[in-house]
TrEMBL record:
Source organism of this protein record: Austropuccinia psidii MF-1
A Pfam short name: gag_pre-integrs
Full protein name: GAG-pre-integrase domain-containing protein
Location of the GAG-pre-integrase domain: 42-86
Record-linked InterPro entries: GAG-pre-integrase_dom, RNaseH-like_sf, RNaseH_sf
Molecular function in Gene Ontology: nucleic acid binding
Length: 148
């Protein structure tokens, strides 16, 4: 998940475990244990939502029902970061009118192919006529061959 304006750092439980730190929930406090190191984090429901990496409502409410965290039912709809990550891009506007005749508008694209063919071709030039949808594909050894 991407939260560019997040007000706090996220805590990765898997990374803690990878580094030999054991997270323990005790008396409504989050305890991090490693040898003689201990840290306590007092939290409320909003903090739990953030500390656990912005989980879904159903997951957080399951933790509440199991008594692993305390408080009232929560909703990610109140979390600005969760709302930002759910924003979707609008579809592209494809109101471009169809070409009136062949060769009026051509769509041209150059693509790199891997692995290189046995003959040494490493690019493909794709040409599509907008009116007829007729297309041609040309293999190229150098990208500069597409010019002209």
């Amino acid at each position: 998940y991407y939260a560019p304006n997040g007000p706090v750092n996220l805590l990765s439980v898997s990374k803690l475990l990878d580094n030999g730190i054991k997270p323990v929930l005790k008396n409504n406090n989050f305890l991090l244990k490693k040898a003689s190191f201990q840290a306590f984090v007092a939290t409320d429901n909003k903090d739990w939502h953030t500390l656990l990496g912005h989980p879904s409502d159903s997951y957080l409410n399951q933790l509440l029902k199991e008594g692993k965290i305390s408080g009232k039912l929560l909703s990610s709809k109140k979390c600005e970061i969760c709302q930002q990550t759910k924003i979707q891009q609008r579809p592209h506007n494809n109101n471009l009118p169809k070409s009136p005749s062949p060769f009026h508008r051509l769509h041209v694209n150059t693509l790199e192919i891997t692995p290189i063919t046995h003959q040494g071709y490493c690019y493909v030039l794709v040409i599509v006529d907008d009116f007829s949808r007729f297309n041609r594909i040309c293999l190229l050894k150098k990208k500069g061959e597409a010019e002209g």
